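Dear Dr. L.,

I hope this message finds you well. Following up on our conversation about the binding site, I have prepared a predicted three-dimensional model of the protein together with nicotinamide-adenine-dinucleotide. For your records, I am including the exact sequence and ligand specification that went into the calculation, followed by the structure tokens. Please feel free to forward this to your student if that is useful.
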Amino acid sequence: MNTQSEQRHVLVTGGAGFIGSHLVEHLVARGDRVVILDNFSTGRRENLTGIASDRYEVIDAPVGEGIQGCEPGTFDEIYHLAAAVGVRLVIEQPIQTIETNVHETSAMLRFAARTRTPILIASTSEVYGKSSRIPFSEDDDVVFGPTIYSRWSYACSKAIDEYLALAYHREQGLPAVIARFFNTVGPRQVGEYGMVLPRFVRAALRGDSLQVYGDGQQVRSFCDVRDVVPALTALMASPLCAGRVFNLGSGRTISILELAELVVRTLESVSPIEHVPYETAFGPDFEDLRLRQPDLTRIREAVGFSPVTELPQTIRDLAQWIRRDGAVMERSA
Ligand code: NAD
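The resulting structure of the complex is given below.
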């Protein structure tokens, strides 16, 4: 816990979302006062129950609008997590994706730059695009698909966010650090925007089939949100991290078919596994990547990042949360 004199005042955009709410919980536990700026497009009030309500306040607005009511210099730190997220959302609403991710980040950086308030920008492993160099290392080239496929708009919009944050750092001395999240998983993640693990866990709990897209041999890495969140505050705390990009995820990989099997086994479910063609799930010309794995050398050296939570534990905790939160999940699906 911080003493009164070192109590930080922190702004978290997207603080009612999956990762954001875990971050708010972590900040409150260390003694910070938190302002959450969220328009509740994919975030949920329920994510904040359990966090002492006298330790945070909520501004219910889009980032660019909400920030106009905040005095520059009010905050000691800013975590910018608000974004249009999820494969399904990105494909179905590309305008909202591009505009949210570019305009809102631009507004946030301009605000932070006025008083050089340290800011962390949430980016994504999608920024690597179709790169085939494994593992993905921060300074690798990025390779995007053609602009006729809206699926790449998420990656491109987040890449613009990175360029902008690095430009503010170089030109105006803004202490901005970029975290490139790989798949982050855990309680409070919902499946309706295309996130694979909550989709699988929910299906396994209901006895429905687990839908694996394609042959299921696409390989990913999954990191528990409770390992990810302390790394965000550690990146913020180290002045040497400003102006740099960091992969943030797990180095352990698993194929999506193996993940489905692990969920069924861990939850002792009777659900079958069903293969669904990509075209059926996402329409024609959807391009998925076969392999995504982060090189974690940089973040390990910078802040000693070393995730500890095993995937079966995450699956059990997510299942427990879905069971408890079931009524809400049914409503929002
Ligand atoms: P989420 O959808 O749960 O959180 C996003 C939050 O931002 C939500 O609370 C939503 O209501 C809010 N939001 C969206 N648009 C907004 C706007 N214009 N103004 C204010 N609030 C807005 O998703 P998440 O998984 O917690 O993602 C958080 C961040 O991490 C995002 O920037 C995302 O791109 C990044 N990320 C997440 C993952 C992952 O595996 N979860 C992977 C890569 C990157």
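In brief: Residues 327-333 have pLDDT under 50 and may be disordered.

With kind regards,
A. P.
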